[in-house]
Design a protein that fits this description.
The chain has 1 helix and 3 strands, in the order E-E-H-E. By secondary structure, the protein is of the alpha+beta class. A 3-stranded antiparallel beta sheet has the order 2-1-3, with helices on one face. The radius of gyration is 10 Å and the shape is globular.
Length: about 55
Amino acid sequence: MKHNERYTIKTNKGKVLGYTDDIEEALEIREKHKQEGAFIEDRKNPNKHRERFFH
């Protein structure tokens, strides 16, 4: 299934948490799931919002 939303929120293990066009919503989801290593994948600029935290 192809999603046309700009932002995809994923965990470090590859689990998709959500799709959205709203950056505020994407940041909110990432903040809720930060213990799982959540990051935002931007379809238009793939490396812009990706942050990894290793413990």
